[in-house]
Amino acid sequence: MANSAPVVTIGNHSLLYNQWQKIQPWLTYADSDGNPAQKFQFWDGGTAANSAYFWTSTNDHWAANTTIEVSASDLSDVWVRAGAVGGTETLWVRAFDGTDWGNWTSFTLTTIPNTAPVVTVPDVQLHTNTWTQAKNWLTYSDANGDAATKYQFWDSGTSATSAYFWTSTNDHWAANTTIEVAAADLADVWIKGGSTTGAETFWVRAFDGTDWSNWDSFTLTSANTPPVVTAGDHSIHIDQWVTVDNWLTKTDANGDAITKYQFWDSGTAATSAYFWTPDNSHWAANTTIDVSAADLANVWIHGGSTTGSETMWVRGFDGTEWSSWDTFTVTSTPNTVPVATINDQSLHVNQWVKPQGWLTASDAEGDTITKYQFWDAGAGATSAYFWTPDNSHWAANTTIDVSASDLANVWIKGGSTTGSETMWVRAFDGTAWSNWDSFNLTSTNTAPTATINDQTLNAAQWAQLVNWTTASDTDGDAITQYQFWDGGGAATSAYFWTPDNSHWASSTVIDVSASDLANVWVRGGTAAGTDSMFVRAFDGTSWSAWDSFTVTSLANHAPDASISNQTLHVNEWSQVGNLVSYADADANPAAAYQFWDGGGNANSGYFWTSANSHWAASTVIDVNAADLDDIWMRGGATTGSETMYVRAYDGIDWSAWHAFTLSTIV
Question: From what superkingdom does this record's organism come (predicted)?
Fold first, then answer.
């Protein structure tokens, strides 16, 4: 049976210029015998250089009128590209089923032409000398969705002060020059506003890779809002100096900094107010005074030398334009001197205080006090005085100048002794001094109080005065010393003791520093009786009144001393100190002992001390209590008994003699 040739059908198609399209989706293959396609052939009838063409993996631009054969397995690698310009052309295709080729099937490919992009910039306004990126104003569109590949700009403003383009390759593009910039570099295109106000025409167009857009013109206006400088009307005192800067209000709608100022004084009288600058100490009236903004603080106005008013003018420059002149009236007025007062004050001796807390200053015109003067009329070496950081003791009858800002650093020290003196203060308002105001400063002190209550002591008893003494001071001053006085003149009366005097005589002033009070002692009298004693305290300035107190010395109780009867062998020794019993009702220790040997026989017992190896009988033997262990007793040379005696002394009285029997045995 004969083979039936395959059939390939394809419809007519349209593509956007330069658009790519796979051919396979457009083809429909049919074979009545059911044979699959083995290969395809294509033919391009468009011979123009910018017409559509076929592409395969083996040839990226097949020439027109050429048979292009492709195996069926490679059909997906066959592409058609639309023409570069609008137009139509005929293309062909047929298929082979392994036995026969089908007929050629033609189809028309229409290339839709490119639509040029559109770029626009609205009319814009830019502040003089201000920079902006051109891309911020630019709007780009393309009906075909093509991206811009480059831009061109044109500046028609030829004035030296007009706005201009800047790119990274040219920091000032000349007017009437085509400026071409890749789209990728658009962010590097800047426009600087003109250095003066004015308008000019700029142009822009864009390229989408195929066509340029039309040129779009836009007007760039370099604008500036002049600054505003105003000064309100002011009154100043005759011959007063003020800085103008504090009077000026400066604004600029564009935020420009004021770069300079001009002033004008219309007052032509010889006594009128005038301007002062570092380079002219008296500017003539009706003269333009130029001042850089940096020097504005150095512009002063001096009030007229008589009362009166005049008109002055000011304006500011923002680097582009001057503000309007602003007028203000300066009135020179008489000055009312300020008033400074300090009331009479009291200070504790040597107390420090800031007079700022005492001072009242006022000015009827509300002028600021700029400085003060103080004066101290107290010339005594112990009087109060002024202190400032630069002088720790201002001499009396000296003018002390102090700026108002340093007032808190002025101190007064109260006198070192009590008393009063006159001091003075006055204030300066920048034009005139106030009258001097006098005030009395009294240095005061409240004497301390020292007391000792009446006391009772045993005879010869010791006591520390620190345990009895109470001292206080209403000013809080520390007690620095004490004085004591003993009014008891009897030899047996109580008395004071200090480390440097073991028995202070009566009717003697005893000076004791407060730190040594614990070292002052009182000893009770050695006989019963009373003594009047006195104490007072010193607070560094004043002594307290003397406070009297009575020391009562109780009568002494004689001690008791005894030795029990003793038995010794012939010629045996015994240490007497071990045998003595001592007692004292007043707890006074024994100061001395006496012994007596009543045995007169040559062979009887006897006493021995280191000072005498055999004390004779019927002899008083004196022994210090500290030497009691130094006395011994020896048994007789023969047996027998005898009476011996002992008594003790407590520093005041002797005890009764106590008899004891010494028996000598074999």
Answer: Bacteria
Number of domains comprising the chain:
6
Strand 560-562 relative to strand 581-583, pairing: antiparallel
Domain shared by 454 and 546, yes or no = yes
Distances, alpha carbon 520 to alpha carbons 455, 458, 551, in Å: 15, 18, 15
Question: Where does the pLDDT of residue 335 fall: very low under 50, low under 70, confident under 90, or very high at 90 and above?
Answer: confident
Tens of pLDDT, residue by residue over 128-167, are 999 999 999 999 999 989 999 999 999 999 999 999 999 9
Assess whether 541 and 453 both reside in one domain. Answer: yes
**Do residues 460 and 546 both lie within one domain?**
yes
- CA dist., res. 284 & res. 215, Å (int): 59
> Containing domain of residue 208, as a range?
118-223
DSSP alpha helix (H) spans, 487-527: none
Q: Is the pLDDT of residue 262 over 70?
A: yes
Q: Phi/psi class of residue 33: alpha, beta or left (left: φ > 0; alpha: ψ in -120 to 50)?
A: alpha
Tell me, yes or no, if the pTM score tops 0.85: no
Mean pLDDT of 447-461: 95
Query: Last residue of a domain, which of 498, 529, 553?
Result: 553
Please enumerate in sequence order all residues whose Cβ is within 8 A of that of 402, keeping only pairs 6 or more positions apart, or say none: 371, 372, 373, 374, 388, 409, 410
* E strand or H helix that includes residue 12: none
The angle subtended at Cα 381 by Cα 380 and Cα 384, nearest 5°, is 75
* Whole-number pLDDT of residue 469: 97
Residue 64: how many CB atoms within 10 A of its CB?
17
Residues in the chain, overall count = 666
Residue 294: is its pLDDT beyond 90?
yes
- Position 90 scores a pLDDT of 96
pLDDT of residue 1: 67
DSSP secondary structure of 35-49: PPP-EEEEEE---ST
DSSP string for residues in 534-573: EEEEE-SS-BPPPEEEEEEEPPPPP-EEE---EEEETT-E
For the chain, what percent of residues have pLDDT higher than 70? 100
| CA–CA distance, 432 with 333 (Å, rounded to integer) | 13
Residue 2 lies in a domain: no
Q: Which residues are registered as beta bridge partners of 206?
A: 151
Rounded Cα distance between 88 and 108, Å, is 7
Query: 515 in helix, strand or coil?
Result: helix
